[in-house]
Design a protein that fits this description.
alpha+beta, 8-stranded antiparallel β-sheet, 30 strands, globular
């Protein structure tokens, strides 16, 4: 059946070897990208008791008809008016089972073990009830701004919400990685699951946004900032759910400014000055606080934001801030109100915010209210003119296997034309020509395993035909 605005609603079921069956209510998994779930919540917004009973009875009937034993999930496609249609049954405990645990107060893994040991189900249907509202966010290594391209790399920073360290907390994180671990292309891109619980959906939403704000990951692209934009989108906030929510909210989710360049550069300059101040000793000549006998101090750095180099100066630049001088722009006053670890309480002009800056060598990861971005400290003596020059090199965006080459040496191509396909993390990725030209060399073969950044082919510029 064609459903114009489908919701994805699933029912958690359990059966034992004694012929007993129960359902543990529903989960709404409508928010999806590339047909994969992004956010899940329980109970489903707008669900009536009659509809819940009907869907639960249908799910139990499906499990009973095959004599199913253990945990399972019966998935339905639902109309906006509540009519529902069977889609499939997943014969396992699913990724999103923690939201069911949160609203029932039950440990479903314990139930699995007891049922597998031959015990009857611990509770009957009439003993089960719903308490509050829970939402789960899948934290993935991917780049939402590049069509959710999976990302790989090292988790150089992994800071979790403080409340998540407690099992009975309304904030819970399930993860199998630690800071310093590598995210490889050989497994699923999910890093962790962030689960929140509240008395109401509104309280759960607020806790989810606060927890995402405290979740800091650097070293590779993640969807953390994207998840915060989903949570704040009108459709999700108002529970106007269907599987096309991300497409419907495209402007809110993708056409965002992120962290402004001035904030990125100002935070990086403040962090650099803070590092210099920490290195100061008792000798007054070791202090880099901007004091000068004659004239004003001037600190200058060559920084790169989104591939673009910036010559940034501060005059004067003291421990509490200074003036940010950007090329072609009026000076911007920067004030450092306080520092606590990686957190900087900053003001740029009349705007004040807290940003977190994590330094890894010459790279600075800046996390603020508008998102997350990187700033690189460049060595002026080592800089090359090709920072501004579009290259004719096609490189692998992540480690993977070459599954197709769509061009031959000597073939003319146009910028944006598909030229190769790689596979990583169970998904195929089409690579496009970076510029007009002629393919001069192919440096890989179908079946090759290539690392991130490996050059796959070269395109030489040519005159238009």
């Amino acid at each position: 059946r064609y459903v114009s605005r489908p919701r994805h609603i699933e029912i958690q079921v359990f059966g034992d070897s004694h012929g007993h069956y129960v359902h543990l209510f529903e989960r709404d998994c409508s928010v999806q990208r590339r047909h994969q779930k992004v956010l899940e919540e329980a109970p489903a917004p707008g669900m009536t008791e009659d509809r819940r009973a009907a869907m639960g009875a249908a799910a139990i009937a499906a499990a009973r008809s095959v004599g199913y034993v253990g945990a399972g999930t019966v998935e339905f496609i639902a109309e906006q008016d509540g009519r529902f249609y069977f889609m499939e049954m997943n014969t396992r405990l699913q990724v999103e089972h923690p939201v069911t645990e949160a609203i029932t107060g039950l440990d479903l893994v314990e139930w699995q073990l007891r049922v597998a040991a031959g015990e009857p189900l611990p509770l009957a249907q009439e003993d089960l009830s719903i308490r509050g509202h829970a939402i789960e966010a899948r934290i993935c290594a991917e780049n939402p701004d590049q069509q959710f391209l999976p990302a790989t790399g090292r988790l150089q920073t992994l800071r979790q919400p403080v409340a998540s360290h407690f099992r009975i907390s309304p904030v819970r994180i399930d993860s199998g990685v630690r800071e310093g671990d590598d995210i490889s292309p050989h497994y699923d891109s999910m890093i962790a699951k962030l689960i929140v619980h509240g008395d109401t959906r509104e309280q759960a939403l607020a806790r989810l946004d606060a927890a995402l704000n405290e979740l800091h990951i650097t070293g590779l692209h993640t969807n953390v900032a994207f998840l915060r934009r989903i949570v704040s989108s009108p459709s999700f906030a108002q529970a106007d759910l269907d599987t096309a929510l991300i497409e419907r909210e495209h402007s809110h989710l993708f056409e965002h400014g992120g962290l402004p360049d001035a904030w990125l550069l100002g935070a990086t300059m403040a962090a650099l000055q803070g590092d210099a101040g920490q290195a100061a000793g008792p000798d007054p000549w070791s202090h880099a606080d901007g004091w000068r006998l004659h004239g004003e101090a001037r600190v200058s750095h060559l920084l790169a934001v989104r591939g673009e180099p910036w010559r940034v100066s501060g005059q004067p630049w003291r421990s509490d801030g200074g003036q940010l001088l950007l090329p072609g722009q009026p000076p911007v006053s920067v004030t450092v109100h306080g520092r606590h670890g990686h957190a900087l309480d900053l003001s740029l002009g009349d705007t004040r915010a807290t940003v977190h800056v994590y330094r890894h060598g010459d790279r600075f990861d800046v996390i603020g209210p508008g998102g997350q971005a990187q700033v690189s400290l460049l060595d002026p003596l080592a800089q090359r003119d090709d920072l501004h020059r579009a290259g004719g090199r096609l490189t692998a965006q992540m480690p993977g296997r070459v599954v197709a080459l769509l061009v031959d040496v000597g073939q003319r191509v146009q910028a944006g034309q598909a030229v190769a396909v790689t596979e990583a993390m169970k998904m195929e990725h089409t690579l496009n020509a970076p510029a007009d030209g002629v393919v001069s060399d192919i440096l890989c073969a179908v079946g090759d395993q290539v690392p991130e950044g490996a050059e796959l082919l070269r395109i030489e510029p040519c005159e238009a035909p």
